[in-house]
Protein backbone atom coordinates (compact mmCIF):
# COMPACT_ATOMS: atom_id res chain seq x y z
CA UNK A 1 0.00 0.00 0.00
CA UNK A 2 2.92 2.36 0.65
CA UNK A 3 5.77 2.69 -1.86
CA UNK A 4 9.47 2.25 -1.07
CA UNK A 5 9.98 6.00 -0.99
CA UNK A 6 7.53 6.32 1.87
CA UNK A 7 4.73 7.90 -0.15
CA UNK A 8 1.42 6.43 -1.13
CA UNK A 9 0.99 5.69 -4.78
CA UNK A 10 -2.03 6.81 -6.76
CA UNK A 11 -3.82 3.49 -6.36
CA UNK A 12 -3.04 3.42 -2.65
CA UNK A 13 -4.31 6.96 -2.17
CA UNK A 14 -7.57 6.12 -3.88
CA UNK A 15 -7.91 3.00 -1.75
CA UNK A 16 -7.28 4.85 1.54
CA UNK A 17 -9.72 7.62 0.62
CA UNK A 18 -12.40 5.06 -0.17
CA UNK A 19 -11.85 3.20 3.11
CA UNK A 20 -11.50 6.20 5.44
CA UNK A 21 -15.24 6.86 5.83
CA UNK A 22 -15.94 3.22 6.56
CA UNK A 23 -13.01 2.93 8.98
CA UNK A 24 -14.24 6.01 10.87
CA UNK A 25 -17.46 4.17 11.68
CA UNK A 26 -15.64 1.20 13.20
CA UNK A 27 -15.10 0.81 16.92
CA UNK A 28 -11.60 -0.61 16.34
CA UNK A 29 -8.77 1.93 16.17
CA UNK A 30 -6.78 1.87 12.92
CA UNK A 31 -3.49 3.63 12.10
CA UNK A 32 -1.41 3.27 8.93
CA UNK A 33 2.26 4.21 9.00
CA UNK A 34 4.69 4.66 6.11
CA UNK A 35 8.32 3.60 6.52
CA UNK A 36 10.08 5.68 9.15
CA UNK A 37 6.98 5.67 11.40
CA UNK A 38 5.35 8.48 9.44
CA UNK A 39 1.61 8.49 10.04
CA UNK A 40 -0.50 8.25 6.91
CA UNK A 41 -3.97 7.66 8.39
CA UNK A 42 -5.68 7.35 11.80
CA UNK A 43 -9.39 6.70 12.10
CA UNK A 44 -11.83 8.44 14.50
CA UNK A 45 -11.92 5.59 17.02
CA UNK A 46 -8.14 5.61 17.46
CA UNK A 47 -8.15 9.37 17.94
CA UNK A 48 -10.82 8.95 20.61
CA UNK A 49 -8.73 6.31 22.36
CA UNK A 50 -5.79 8.69 22.41
CA UNK A 51 -7.91 11.61 23.65
CA UNK A 52 -6.17 14.29 21.65
CA UNK A 53 -2.62 12.94 21.81
CA UNK A 54 -0.64 12.93 18.56
CA UNK A 55 -1.33 9.58 16.84
CA UNK A 56 2.03 9.72 15.06
CA UNK A 57 3.69 9.20 18.45
CA UNK A 58 1.02 7.74 20.70
CA UNK A 59 -0.31 5.13 18.23
CA UNK A 60 2.90 3.08 18.17
CA UNK A 61 2.81 0.06 20.51
CA UNK A 62 5.56 -0.47 23.06
CA UNK A 63 8.05 -3.35 23.03
CA UNK A 64 5.41 -5.63 24.52
CA UNK A 65 2.97 -4.87 21.73
CA UNK A 66 0.67 -2.79 23.91
CA UNK A 67 -0.69 0.68 23.33
CA UNK A 68 -0.73 2.91 26.40
CA UNK A 69 -3.92 4.99 26.62
CA UNK A 70 -4.49 8.22 28.58
CA UNK A 71 -4.97 7.46 32.26
CA UNK A 72 -2.36 4.65 32.21
CA UNK A 73 -4.56 1.90 30.83
CA UNK A 74 -3.08 -0.21 28.01
CA UNK A 75 -4.55 -2.47 25.37
CA UNK A 76 -2.96 -5.09 23.12
CA UNK A 77 -2.32 -3.74 19.61
CA UNK A 78 -1.87 -5.79 16.48
CA UNK A 79 0.87 -4.82 14.01
CA UNK A 80 0.48 -5.83 10.38
CA UNK A 81 3.40 -5.26 7.98
CA UNK A 82 2.58 -3.64 4.65
CA UNK A 83 4.25 -3.84 1.29
CA UNK A 84 7.13 -1.42 1.01
CA UNK A 85 7.97 -1.39 4.71
CA UNK A 86 4.95 0.36 6.17
CA UNK A 87 2.65 -1.14 8.79
CA UNK A 88 -0.94 -0.99 10.04
CA UNK A 89 -1.74 -0.77 13.74
CA UNK A 90 -5.04 -2.30 14.81
CA UNK A 91 -6.27 -1.36 18.29
CA UNK A 92 -9.36 -3.12 19.66
CA UNK A 93 -11.93 -1.08 21.55
CA UNK A 94 -10.88 -0.65 25.21
CA UNK A 95 -14.29 -2.06 26.19
CA UNK A 96 -15.84 -5.17 24.70
CA UNK A 97 -19.26 -3.54 24.51
CA UNK A 98 -18.12 -0.25 22.99
CA UNK A 99 -19.41 -0.94 19.50
CA UNK A 100 -22.73 -2.18 20.84
CA UNK A 101 -23.01 0.91 23.07
CA UNK A 102 -22.21 3.19 20.15
CA UNK A 103 -24.97 1.54 18.14
CA UNK A 104 -27.42 2.25 20.97
CA UNK A 105 -26.34 5.88 21.24
CA UNK A 106 -26.71 6.34 17.49
CA UNK A 107 -30.29 5.09 17.65
CA UNK A 108 -31.32 7.84 20.12
CA UNK A 109 -33.10 11.06 19.15
CA UNK A 110 -31.28 12.75 22.02
CA UNK A 111 -27.96 14.28 20.97
CA UNK A 112 -25.04 12.81 22.93
CA UNK A 113 -21.52 14.23 22.87
CA UNK A 114 -18.59 13.23 25.09
CA UNK A 115 -15.53 15.22 26.18
CA UNK A 116 -12.49 14.11 28.19
CA UNK A 117 -11.24 15.61 31.44
CA UNK A 118 -9.45 18.35 29.47
CA UNK A 119 -12.66 19.38 27.66
CA UNK A 120 -11.58 17.75 24.38
CA UNK A 121 -14.06 16.16 22.03
CA UNK A 122 -14.21 12.35 22.05
CA UNK A 123 -17.33 11.42 20.10
CA UNK A 124 -20.83 12.49 19.14
CA UNK A 125 -23.72 10.27 18.13
CA UNK A 126 -25.66 10.43 14.85
CA UNK A 127 -28.29 12.80 16.32
CA UNK A 128 -25.53 15.18 17.38
CA UNK A 129 -24.05 15.38 13.89
CA UNK A 130 -27.52 15.69 12.40
CA UNK A 131 -28.21 18.68 14.62
CA UNK A 132 -24.87 20.31 13.72
CA UNK A 133 -24.45 19.50 10.01
CA UNK A 134 -21.80 22.21 9.65
CA UNK A 135 -19.28 20.20 11.68
CA UNK A 136 -16.55 18.30 9.80
CA UNK A 137 -16.21 14.49 9.94
CA UNK A 138 -15.66 13.04 13.38
CA UNK A 139 -12.02 12.14 12.75
CA UNK A 140 -11.25 15.85 12.39
CA UNK A 141 -13.15 16.78 15.55
CA UNK A 142 -11.46 14.38 17.96
CA UNK A 143 -9.29 16.40 20.33
CA UNK A 144 -11.06 19.72 19.66
CA UNK A 145 -11.78 21.61 22.88
CA UNK A 146 -15.30 22.49 23.96
CA UNK A 147 -14.51 26.14 23.35
CA UNK A 148 -13.27 25.29 19.88
CA UNK A 149 -16.52 23.43 19.16
CA UNK A 150 -18.51 26.51 20.20
CA UNK A 151 -16.44 28.72 17.93
CA UNK A 152 -16.97 26.35 15.00
CA UNK A 153 -20.71 26.50 15.55
CA UNK A 154 -20.85 30.30 15.79
CA UNK A 155 -18.61 30.67 12.74
CA UNK A 156 -21.09 28.53 10.80
CA UNK A 157 -23.90 30.96 11.74
CA UNK A 158 -25.69 28.52 14.04
CA UNK A 159 -26.77 30.40 17.18
CA UNK A 160 -28.16 28.62 20.23
CA UNK A 161 -29.61 31.84 21.65
CA UNK A 162 -29.62 35.61 21.18
CA UNK A 163 -26.43 36.11 23.21
CA UNK A 164 -24.50 33.80 20.90
CA UNK A 165 -25.46 36.04 17.99
CA UNK A 166 -25.00 39.45 19.58
CA UNK A 167 -22.17 38.85 22.07
CA UNK A 168 -20.41 35.62 21.07
CA UNK A 169 -17.44 36.04 23.43
CA UNK A 170 -19.68 36.46 26.47
CA UNK A 171 -21.72 33.49 25.28
CA UNK A 172 -18.61 31.31 24.92
CA UNK A 173 -17.31 32.35 28.36
CA UNK A 174 -20.66 31.54 29.95
CA UNK A 175 -21.03 28.17 28.27
CA UNK A 176 -17.46 27.11 29.07
CA UNK A 177 -17.94 28.09 32.74
CA UNK A 178 -21.20 26.14 32.88
CA UNK A 179 -19.58 23.16 31.18
CA UNK A 180 -16.64 23.09 33.60
CA UNK A 181 -18.80 23.33 36.70
CA UNK A 182 -18.14 20.44 39.05
CA UNK A 183 -21.82 19.86 39.76
CA UNK A 184 -24.11 18.14 37.26
CA UNK A 185 -26.22 20.72 35.46
CA UNK A 186 -29.56 20.63 33.72
CA UNK A 187 -31.08 23.60 31.93
CA UNK A 188 -34.01 24.29 29.64
CA UNK A 189 -34.15 27.04 27.05
CA UNK A 190 -35.94 28.16 23.94
CA UNK A 191 -33.82 28.30 20.80
CA UNK A 192 -33.95 31.14 18.32
CA UNK A 193 -36.12 28.92 16.13
CA UNK A 194 -38.76 28.72 18.88
CA UNK A 195 -38.07 25.12 19.94
CA UNK A 196 -37.51 24.11 23.55
CA UNK A 197 -34.51 21.98 24.52
CA UNK A 198 -33.31 20.39 27.72
CA UNK A 199 -29.54 20.10 28.14
CA UNK A 200 -27.99 17.91 30.79
CA UNK A 201 -24.27 17.73 31.54
CA UNK A 202 -23.03 14.64 33.40
CA UNK A 203 -19.53 14.25 34.80
CA UNK A 204 -18.30 10.71 35.39
CA UNK A 205 -15.86 9.72 38.18
CA UNK A 206 -13.10 9.33 35.57
CA UNK A 207 -13.57 12.94 34.43
CA UNK A 208 -15.56 12.20 31.28
CA UNK A 209 -18.22 14.83 30.49
CA UNK A 210 -21.36 13.83 28.67
CA UNK A 211 -23.70 16.45 27.25
CA UNK A 212 -27.20 15.27 26.38
CA UNK A 213 -29.61 17.54 24.52
CA UNK A 214 -33.28 16.58 24.12
CA UNK A 215 -35.98 18.49 22.27
CA UNK A 216 -38.89 19.07 24.65
CA UNK A 217 -41.07 21.41 22.59
CA UNK A 218 -44.03 19.03 22.71
CA UNK A 219 -43.58 18.52 26.46
CA UNK A 220 -43.59 22.29 26.96
CA UNK A 221 -46.73 22.61 24.85
CA UNK A 222 -48.53 20.05 26.98
CA UNK A 223 -47.28 21.72 30.18
CA UNK A 224 -48.61 25.08 28.97
CA UNK A 225 -51.99 23.53 28.15
CA UNK A 226 -52.12 21.98 31.61
CA UNK A 227 -51.19 25.31 33.22
CA UNK A 228 -53.95 27.12 31.35
CA UNK A 229 -56.43 24.37 32.22
CA UNK A 230 -55.45 24.71 35.89
CA UNK A 231 -55.97 28.48 35.75
CA UNK A 232 -59.38 28.01 34.14
CA UNK A 233 -60.35 25.48 36.79
CA UNK A 234 -59.22 27.79 39.60
CA UNK A 235 -61.16 30.68 38.06
CA UNK A 236 -64.29 28.58 37.63
CA UNK A 237 -63.97 27.30 41.20
CA UNK A 238 -63.64 30.86 42.52
CA UNK A 239 -66.72 31.90 40.53
CA UNK A 240 -68.73 28.98 41.91
CA UNK A 241 -67.59 29.76 45.46
CA UNK A 242 -68.55 33.39 45.03
CA UNK A 243 -71.90 32.37 43.64
CA UNK A 244 -72.67 30.11 46.61
CA UNK A 245 -71.67 32.79 49.12
CA UNK A 246 -73.66 35.42 47.28
CA UNK A 247 -76.68 33.14 47.16
CA UNK A 248 -76.49 32.52 50.91
CA UNK A 249 -76.19 36.25 51.53
CA UNK A 250 -79.13 37.14 49.30
CA UNK A 251 -81.43 34.49 50.81
CA UNK A 252 -80.77 35.52 54.40
CA UNK A 253 -82.97 38.66 54.59
CA UNK A 254 -86.15 37.40 52.89
CA UNK A 255 -85.91 34.12 54.80
CA UNK A 256 -85.63 36.07 58.05
CA UNK A 257 -88.88 37.87 57.14
CA UNK A 258 -90.63 34.62 56.24
CA UNK A 259 -89.59 33.00 59.51
CA UNK A 260 -90.27 36.07 61.63
CA UNK A 261 -93.78 36.78 60.40
CA UNK A 262 -94.74 33.10 60.25
CA UNK A 263 -93.67 32.70 63.90
CA UNK A 264 -95.90 35.66 64.83
CA UNK A 265 -98.82 34.06 63.05
CA UNK A 266 -98.12 30.64 64.52
CA UNK A 267 -97.80 32.03 68.05
CA UNK A 268 -100.92 34.24 67.62
CA UNK A 269 -98.87 37.10 69.02
CA UNK A 270 -101.62 39.62 68.15
CA UNK A 271 -104.48 37.42 69.23
CA UNK A 272 -106.58 34.91 67.37
CA UNK A 273 -105.97 34.24 63.71
CA UNK A 274 -109.04 36.31 62.81
CA UNK A 275 -107.08 39.47 63.69
CA UNK A 276 -106.77 41.64 60.49
CA UNK A 277 -103.06 42.31 61.12
CA UNK A 278 -102.31 38.72 60.19
CA UNK A 279 -103.44 39.44 56.64
CA UNK A 280 -100.67 42.02 56.42
CA UNK A 281 -98.18 39.47 57.75
CA UNK A 282 -99.36 36.91 55.22
CA UNK A 283 -98.86 39.47 52.45
CA UNK A 284 -95.32 40.16 53.68
CA UNK A 285 -94.58 36.44 53.77
CA UNK A 286 -95.84 36.14 50.20
CA UNK A 287 -93.79 39.18 49.17
CA UNK A 288 -90.63 37.68 50.68
CA UNK A 289 -91.41 34.38 49.00
CA UNK A 290 -91.77 36.16 45.66
CA UNK A 291 -88.39 37.79 46.17
CA UNK A 292 -86.87 34.39 46.91
CA UNK A 293 -88.50 33.04 43.77
CA UNK A 294 -86.94 35.89 41.77
CA UNK A 295 -83.54 35.02 43.19
CA UNK A 296 -83.99 31.35 42.34
CA UNK A 297 -85.10 32.27 38.83
CA UNK A 298 -81.79 34.04 38.32
CA UNK A 299 -79.74 31.03 39.40
CA UNK A 300 -79.28 29.63 35.90
CA UNK A 301 -77.84 32.89 34.58
CA UNK A 302 -75.57 33.20 37.61
CA UNK A 303 -74.20 29.66 37.23
CA UNK A 304 -73.57 30.16 33.52
CA UNK A 305 -72.14 33.65 34.16
CA UNK A 306 -74.64 35.19 31.75
CA UNK A 307 -74.68 38.98 31.97
CA UNK A 308 -77.88 40.09 33.78
CA UNK A 309 -80.52 41.81 31.65
CA UNK A 310 -82.50 44.78 32.94
CA UNK A 311 -86.27 44.43 32.89
CA UNK A 312 -87.24 48.06 33.33
CA UNK A 313 -90.63 49.09 34.64
CA UNK A 314 -92.06 52.18 36.33
CA UNK A 315 -91.64 51.78 40.11
CA UNK A 316 -93.53 53.53 42.89
CA UNK A 317 -90.45 54.22 45.01
CA UNK A 318 -92.35 55.13 48.17
CA UNK A 319 -94.40 51.98 48.12
CA UNK A 320 -91.37 49.76 47.44
CA UNK A 321 -89.31 51.42 50.16
CA UNK A 322 -92.08 51.01 52.75
CA UNK A 323 -92.55 47.36 51.79
CA UNK A 324 -88.83 46.48 52.08
CA UNK A 325 -88.58 48.24 55.44
CA UNK A 326 -91.41 46.00 56.65
CA UNK A 327 -89.59 42.90 55.33
CA UNK A 328 -86.52 43.73 57.43
CA UNK A 329 -88.62 44.61 60.50
CA UNK A 330 -88.33 41.16 62.21
CA UNK A 331 -84.54 41.33 61.97
CA UNK A 332 -84.55 44.87 63.40
CA UNK A 333 -86.94 43.91 66.18
CA UNK A 334 -84.72 40.98 67.21
CA UNK A 335 -81.70 43.32 67.29
CA UNK A 336 -83.53 46.08 69.19
CA UNK A 337 -83.12 48.53 66.31
CA UNK A 338 -85.85 50.94 65.17
CA UNK A 339 -86.73 51.22 61.48
CA UNK A 340 -88.10 54.34 59.83
CA UNK A 341 -88.95 55.47 56.29
CA UNK A 342 -88.90 59.10 55.10
CA UNK A 343 -90.18 60.07 51.65
CA UNK A 344 -90.29 63.33 49.70
CA UNK A 345 -93.75 64.55 48.80
CA UNK A 346 -94.84 63.98 45.20
CA UNK A 347 -91.83 61.78 44.43
CA UNK A 348 -91.93 60.74 40.75
CA UNK A 349 -91.65 57.12 39.68
CA UNK A 350 -88.36 55.43 38.91
CA UNK A 351 -87.79 53.46 35.70
CA UNK A 352 -85.65 50.48 36.76
CA UNK A 353 -85.55 46.71 37.26
CA UNK A 354 -87.84 46.21 40.28
CA UNK A 355 -86.19 42.94 41.34
CA UNK A 356 -82.75 44.53 41.34
CA UNK A 357 -83.90 47.65 43.20
CA UNK A 358 -85.57 45.46 45.82
CA UNK A 359 -82.37 43.41 46.11
CA UNK A 360 -80.23 46.54 46.59
CA UNK A 361 -82.58 47.94 49.25
CA UNK A 362 -82.68 44.68 51.19
CA UNK A 363 -78.89 44.47 51.18
CA UNK A 364 -78.48 48.03 52.48
CA UNK A 365 -81.27 47.72 55.06
CA UNK A 366 -80.04 44.38 56.41
CA UNK A 367 -76.46 45.72 56.60
CA UNK A 368 -77.71 48.76 58.50
CA UNK A 369 -79.57 46.60 61.03
CA UNK A 370 -76.76 44.03 61.34
CA UNK A 371 -74.06 46.57 62.15
CA UNK A 372 -76.05 48.95 64.35
CA UNK A 373 -75.80 48.70 68.12
CA UNK A 374 -78.30 51.41 69.01
CA UNK A 375 -80.71 53.95 67.63
CA UNK A 376 -82.46 53.62 64.31
CA UNK A 377 -81.94 52.70 60.69
CA UNK A 378 -83.65 55.18 58.40
CA UNK A 379 -84.58 54.61 54.76
CA UNK A 380 -85.46 57.59 52.61
CA UNK A 381 -86.07 58.55 48.99
CA UNK A 382 -85.58 62.02 47.52
CA UNK A 383 -85.43 63.88 44.25
CA UNK A 384 -82.00 65.43 43.70
CA UNK A 385 -81.52 68.92 42.18
CA UNK A 386 -80.25 67.31 38.95
CA UNK A 387 -83.56 65.46 38.57
CA UNK A 388 -82.28 62.04 39.58
CA UNK A 389 -83.76 59.93 42.37
CA UNK A 390 -81.70 58.79 45.37
CA UNK A 391 -82.53 55.97 47.78
CA UNK A 392 -80.70 56.40 51.08
CA UNK A 393 -80.17 54.07 54.05
CA UNK A 394 -78.56 55.59 57.16
CA UNK A 395 -77.66 53.79 60.38
CA UNK A 396 -76.34 54.87 63.78
CA UNK A 397 -73.80 52.09 64.09
CA UNK A 398 -70.09 52.14 64.94
CA UNK A 399 -69.06 53.75 61.64
CA UNK A 400 -65.89 53.01 59.72
CA UNK A 401 -62.41 54.43 59.28
CA UNK A 402 -61.64 56.07 55.90
CA UNK A 403 -59.25 53.25 54.91
CA UNK A 404 -61.98 50.65 55.45
CA UNK A 405 -64.64 52.78 53.75
CA UNK A 406 -62.48 53.15 50.64
CA UNK A 407 -62.42 49.37 50.10
CA UNK A 408 -66.07 48.61 50.77
CA UNK A 409 -67.72 47.17 47.70
CA UNK A 410 -64.67 45.12 46.71
CA UNK A 411 -65.72 41.46 46.35
CA UNK A 412 -64.98 39.51 49.55
CA UNK A 413 -63.53 42.50 51.42
CA UNK A 414 -64.93 41.98 54.93
CA UNK A 415 -63.82 45.10 56.77
CA UNK A 416 -63.28 44.63 60.50
CA UNK A 417 -65.23 43.40 63.50
CA UNK A 418 -67.18 46.20 65.20
CA UNK A 419 -66.69 47.52 68.71
CA UNK A 420 -69.19 45.00 70.07
CA UNK A 421 -67.05 42.16 68.74
CA UNK A 422 -69.45 41.17 65.98
CA UNK A 423 -67.58 39.76 62.99
CA UNK A 424 -67.40 41.49 59.63
CA UNK A 425 -69.79 40.45 56.87
CA UNK A 426 -69.14 38.12 53.95
CA UNK A 427 -67.81 40.92 51.78
CA UNK A 428 -70.52 40.29 49.17
CA UNK A 429 -73.52 42.55 49.91
CA UNK A 430 -72.09 45.92 48.91
CA UNK A 431 -70.28 44.30 45.97
CA UNK A 432 -73.67 43.09 44.68
CA UNK A 433 -75.21 46.53 45.22
CA UNK A 434 -72.34 48.20 43.40
CA UNK A 435 -72.77 45.89 40.39
CA UNK A 436 -76.56 46.32 40.24
CA UNK A 437 -76.56 50.12 40.49
CA UNK A 438 -73.88 50.25 37.76
CA UNK A 439 -76.27 48.34 35.47
CA UNK A 440 -78.66 51.27 35.94
CA UNK A 441 -75.92 53.78 35.01
CA UNK A 442 -75.92 54.96 38.62
CA UNK A 443 -73.51 54.74 41.52
CA UNK A 444 -73.27 53.78 45.18
CA UNK A 445 -72.04 56.59 47.44
CA UNK A 446 -70.85 55.69 50.95
CA UNK A 447 -70.14 58.04 53.85
CA UNK A 448 -69.19 57.05 57.38
CA UNK A 449 -67.95 58.56 60.64
CA UNK A 450 -66.45 56.50 63.44
CA UNK A 451 -68.84 56.35 66.39
CA UNK A 452 -71.71 57.98 64.48
CA UNK A 453 -72.78 55.60 61.73
CA UNK A 454 -72.81 55.00 57.97
CA UNK A 455 -74.91 56.31 55.09
CA UNK A 456 -75.33 54.45 51.79
CA UNK A 457 -76.92 56.28 48.87
CA UNK A 458 -78.11 54.77 45.59
CA UNK A 459 -77.91 57.53 42.98
CA UNK A 460 -80.00 56.85 39.87
CA UNK A 461 -79.34 59.11 36.86
CA UNK A 462 -81.97 61.71 35.83
CA UNK A 463 -82.73 59.67 32.71
CA UNK A 464 -84.40 57.07 34.93
CA UNK A 465 -86.82 59.51 36.52
CA UNK A 466 -90.31 59.14 35.02
CA UNK A 467 -91.70 62.54 34.08
CA UNK A 468 -95.19 63.46 35.23
CA UNK A 469 -97.78 62.16 32.79
CA UNK A 470 -95.53 59.32 31.53
Helicity range = 40-55%
Q: What is the CATH class name of the largest domain?
A: Alpha Beta
**C-alpha end-to-end distance:** 117 Å
Query: Quick one: how many beta strands?
Result: 18
Q: What does the largest sheet look like?
A: 5 strands, antiparallel
Mean pLDDT: 78
CATH topology (fold) name of the largest domain: Heat Shock Protein 90
Alpha carbon gyration radius: 44 Å
CATH architectural designation of the largest domain: 2-Layer Sandwich
What are the low-pLDDT stretches, counting only 5+ consecutive residues below 50? 1-9, 417-427
CATH homologous superfamily title of the largest domain: Histidine kinase-like ATPase, C-terminal domain
The largest sheet has its strands arranged as 8-7-11-10-9
Compute the number of structural domains: 3
What is the beta-strand fraction? 15-25%
Fold topology:
Elements: H1 10-24, E1 29-34, E2 38-42, H2 44-50, H3 55-58, E3 66-68, E4 74-76, E5 78-81, E6 87-91, H4 98-106, E7 111-115, E8 121-124, H5 126-131, H6 138-141, H7 146-155, H8 162-166, H9 168-180, E9 185-190, E10 196-203, E11 209-215, H10 217-266, H11 277-297, H12 299-303, E12 312-315, H13 317-335, E13 338-343, E14 350-353, H14 354-370, E15 376-383, E16 389-394, H15 402-407, H16 429-439, E17 443-449, E18 453-459
Parallel strand pairs: 13-15
Antiparallel strand pairs: 1-2, 1-6, 3-4, 5-6, 7-8, 7-11, 9-10, 10-11, 12-14, 15-16, 16-18, 17-18
Helix pairs in contact: 7-9, 10-11, 10-13, 13-14, 14-16
Amino acid sequence: MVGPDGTAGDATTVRIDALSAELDRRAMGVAIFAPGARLVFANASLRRFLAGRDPEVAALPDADGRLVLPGGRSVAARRLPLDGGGEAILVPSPGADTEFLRHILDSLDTTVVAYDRDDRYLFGNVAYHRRYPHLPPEAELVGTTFEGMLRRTIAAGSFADAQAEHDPEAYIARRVAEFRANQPAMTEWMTVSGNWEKVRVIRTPSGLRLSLRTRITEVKRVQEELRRAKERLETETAVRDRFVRRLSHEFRTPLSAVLGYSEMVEGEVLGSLETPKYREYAALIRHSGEHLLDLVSGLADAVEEVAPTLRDEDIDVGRMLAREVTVVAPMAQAAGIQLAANLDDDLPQLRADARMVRQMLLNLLSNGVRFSTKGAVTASARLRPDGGISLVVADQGAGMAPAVLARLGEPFYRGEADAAGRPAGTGLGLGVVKDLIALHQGRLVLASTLGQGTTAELEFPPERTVAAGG
